[in-house]
Amino acid sequence: MLIEIKVPNFPESVADGTIVSWHKHPGDVVKRDEILVEIETDKVVFEVPAISDGVLQEILENEGATVVSGQVLTHIDPSGAGASAAAADAATSAGQEAAQEHVITPSARKLIAEHNLDGADITGSGKDGRVLKEDVLRVLDNTPAKPSPARQSSAPATASAVVTQGVAPLPPGDRPEKRVPMTRLRARIAQRLVEAQHTAAILTTFNEVNMQPVMDLRQKYKDKFEKEHGVRLGFMSFFVKASIEALKQFPEVNASVDGGDIVYHGFFDIGIAVGSPRGLVVPILRNADVLSMAKIEAQITEYAAKAKDGTLAIEEITGGTFTITNGGIFGSLLSTPIINPPQSGILGMHKIQPRPVVEDGNIVIRPMMYLALSYDHRIIDGREAVQFLVTIKELLEDPARILLDI
Fold first, then answer.
1. What separation, in Å, do the N-terminal and C-terminal C-alpha atoms of the chain show?
2. What pLDDT, in 10s, does the model give residues 211-253?
3. I want to staple 124 with a disulfide (CB 3.0 to 4.6 A). Which of 83, 129, 265, 367 is the partner?
């Protein structure tokens, strides 16, 4: 009796998904819990595993197809597992391990196809040897890409065909274009950003903070902290703690608009914007006000690894009452972040840069960071927004207040 493999049940907020890649093909022997197919939604990628040993039958929905919860994708014939297992056992265990190690993420597979690379030659740095987009980019930075068959037939091999950064120089007058559909996540990001600008009255206020006190405290205790807690002491936990204290003083920044109502949240679920191969994601630190700095750092580290591997769960990126984004890790000196609806505020961190400042009438050099708070002016007045940001500045410039809760 054939076993149906169906699309998993999506959360209520997810209507459908797109098949991005099949890992198995008709006739392949599959083992229970092996990943058969990846389905991308506007939030996360769902991996659909085999629920039984057997032989994969016909594929009912190809890559690029839109599917909904419960839809049948393929069948597994468990009766064919025994007969096919002998052929599968002929493969060496080393070969099987190599196949497992070369699981390729959708974004990486797309780059491999575009540049005509061999995925088997790329060493993966992701979880369980998974090949990530960054791994492919690293290869492109160091290895000339193979020209496509069309290019090979139309252009002679000359010295001018040598590629740099994986892109071949084009003949004079050649002006190629490539049209690709947005991924679901990118389309959702675009939709939410436009929605935020159309529905909220977004305003941004700025300040700057002297990071010397935080840097001194971090330098003094970072080794003991890591030894005690098994995680590095970063800057983000200071900003999370400072933001929570400021949110307690200015609850409207932790509120949201729901129709004609203002919803004041009595909890603090802090979103941390994280870059991933699929785009920007915002995992949530639930009840961040009761988390220690070590727990905050550990959870952020875990979320960053999951974002890189594309394994964030839907519940880990849903909700949130306030968001923190750090453009400084990419070198941004100043920006105006866009709020994440239905939230009403987002804090933007930026690059720490030595700058001359005046202290007690003297010009001194200090490691300074510009802070930006974008807020929904419908429910947050300028005075509260400015005072909120000043509170964060004061807490960071005297971090003992964060630890002493004063």
1. 67
2. 999 999 999 999 999 999 999 999 999 999 999 999 999 999 9
3. 129
Report DSSP letters for 36-48, one per residue: EEEEE-SS-EEEE
Pick the last residue of a domain from 158, 185, 207.
Answer: 158
Report d(CA 398, CA 394) in Å as an integer. Answer: 6
CA 299 centroid distance within chain: 14
CA distance 164 to 196: 40
378 within a domain of the structure (yes/no): yes
The verdict on whether omega for the bond into residue 49 sits within 30 degrees of 0, i.e. cis, is no
Calpha distance 46→39 (Å, rounded): 5
The catalytic residue positions are 377, 381
Residue 345 pairs with which residues in a beta bridge? 375
The domain of 48 spans 1-90
Whether residue 301 sits in one domain with residue 233: yes
* Distance from C-alpha of 401 to C-alpha of 80, rounded to nearest angstrom: 67
161-190 pLDDT per residue, tens: 333 444 456 566 678 888 887 777 778 778
Over residues 313-363, the pLDDT tens digits come to 888 988 899 999 999 999 999 999 999 889 999 999 999 999 999 999 999
- The phi, psi pair for 135, rounded to 5°, reads -65, -40
Alpha helices in 155-211 (DSSP H): 184-199
**Consecutive H or E run containing 130:** none
